[in-house]
Amino acid sequence: MSNDPHDGATARRDALRFIAAGLLLGGWPDADPPRAATIEAAGCVLTPAQTEGPYFVDERLDRSDVRDDPATGTPRPGAVLTLDLRVVAVDGTRCTPMRGAIVDIWQCDALGNYSDVGDRRGARFLRGYQVTDADGGVRFTTIYPGAYPGRAVHIHFKVRAHVGNRDAEFTSQLYFDDILTDRVHATHPYAGAAQRRTRNARDGLYRNGGSTLTLDVATRGDAYAAAYHIGVRTS
């Protein structure tokens, strides 16, 4: 645990997410996500879907460490972030780990650049997927995201699974506390990030459910770690 003065609020948010911060596969259109709600019978919290955005590329990169471009093997510079995600299936009154779901993440680098789009087409840094294990878990090693104009600092994620007799997917975004981001972006190599960045309260997507998608980040030396629980309703 960090010694950050915001740990009290962090602990309260984490307790709710441990119940199972939720998503409804295939049920929430990206353009109009609902407000967070509670499934009373299951005791699982549903959180809003968010837009995929223009930068998703289905690279099919099966890897836990997403920092490098496979063509070069050179990690993208930035503060290391370990991200643990757990997908939980909500079935009636039970919440159980969901095995075999594909979880993708993608994000910008420390200078606000996405790979495989625009003049970086062909590069594949900071993209990858993992398949959930028997506990519904995946782990990624990435970097703390940088910033680009018009958006708060975020990481995109997508869950794809076979539910019943259909294939379904859900897409959303994970956010960071502004105070922590201020601290990280004051270090190398995030030069100029503060000038490019939109703070959470000024980001329209964040204002539509971002508080329930904000990560609780622990400091580990010069690195960071966060966990987030994703609940998937299956009935």
CATH class: Mainly Beta
Number of helices: 4
Q: What fraction of the residues are assigned to beta strands by DSSP? A: 25-35%
Uncertain stretches:
1-43
Q: Which CATH-level-2 architecture?
A: Sandwich
Number of domains: 1
Query: Multimeric state of these chains?
Result: single chain
Count the beta strands: 12
CATH topology tier name: Protocatechuate 3,4-Dioxygenase, subunit A
Helix and strand composition category: mainly beta
Q: Helix amount, in percent? A: 10-25%
Name the overall outline: globular
Question: What does the average pLDDT come to?
Answer: 82
How do the helices and strands follow one another from N- to C-terminus?
HEEEEEEEEEEHHHEE
What is the end-to-end distance?
36 Å
Cα Rg: 17 Å
User: What would CATH call the homologous superfamily?
Assistant: Aromatic compound dioxygenase
Largest sheet composition:
8 strands, mixed
